[in-house]
Amino acid sequence: MTDWPEFLKQLSHEVLANESVRSMIPAEMIEAGWLGYPPATEKELVKLEKRLKTPLPPSYREFLLVSNGWKFPGAFIYDMLPADKVGWFRKLHGDWIEAWLEGEETVGEPIEVTHEEHCVYGPDQNCCKFRTQYWRETLAISEIGDSAIYLLNPKVVNANGEWEAWFFANWSPGATRYRSFGEMMQAELERIVRPRD
Predict the structure, then answer these.
(1) What class is the 4-196 domain?
(2) 178 - beta bridge partners?
(3) CB count, 10 Å around CB of 192?
(4) pLDDT in tens, 29-81
(5) Are 81 and 92 in contact (CB under 8 A)?
(6) Do residues 36 and 28 make contact, with C-beta atoms less than 8 angstroms apart?
């Protein structure tokens, strides 16, 4: 379980230490040392879950109760969406799916990926081996940054109710997948910290 207030405080500190990013952040956020927004209310989250017709995964729900959106959560994502803007990827960005399918047709028969091959995480993961049928069902939780987006996959859910989380970019050959939203955000923080270590 992620201690979101402490984690997001550290994420703010690390992102604000990057001078090139600071120039793109509102002055009031720099002054506050906090890249978050006011928390979502329980009522807002119930409304979102009703609209999506599914409960949110716990780590993402807990995050929204601390900050309803986020500025610069990762190197290629500039804004995480507030609860009222979150939506199914196929509805918000159907053009990406169409472009992908056109590309598949020109290359030939799509490669079949089993559920087991898809559900490999960490250093053994092959980002190109993901199930495109799952991709069509994902939830978009960020704006498109540097042609990249964060997605949550309700087709892969663990025993704790966590949905698989994806970093997907149209310049990258596949989807980098994590067991949960919390795990993906921890990986993003590590990527930000690593270059300075």
Answers:
(1) alpha beta
(2) 165
(3) 20
(4) 999 999 999 999 999 999 999 999 999 999 999 999 999 999 999 889 999 99
(5) no
(6) no
Q: Alpha-carbon distance 126 to 129, whole Å?
A: 5
Closest CA to 162 of 145, 140, 184, 144: 184
Give me the residue label for tokens 């807990």: 62
What is the tens place of the pLDDT at every residue in 136-169?
Answer: 899 999 999 999 999 999 999 999 999 999 999 9
Nearest to 34 by CA among 61, 62, 6, 65: 6
Rg (CA), the chain: 17
| 35 sits in which H/E element | none
pLDDT digits (tens, 9 = 90+) for 9-38: 999 999 999 888 888 899 999 999 999 999
Q: Is 176 helix (H, G, I), strand (E, B) or coil?
A: strand
Q: Positive or negative, the Cα torsion across 34, 36, 38, 40?
A: negative
Please state the pTM of the whole predicted model.
0.93
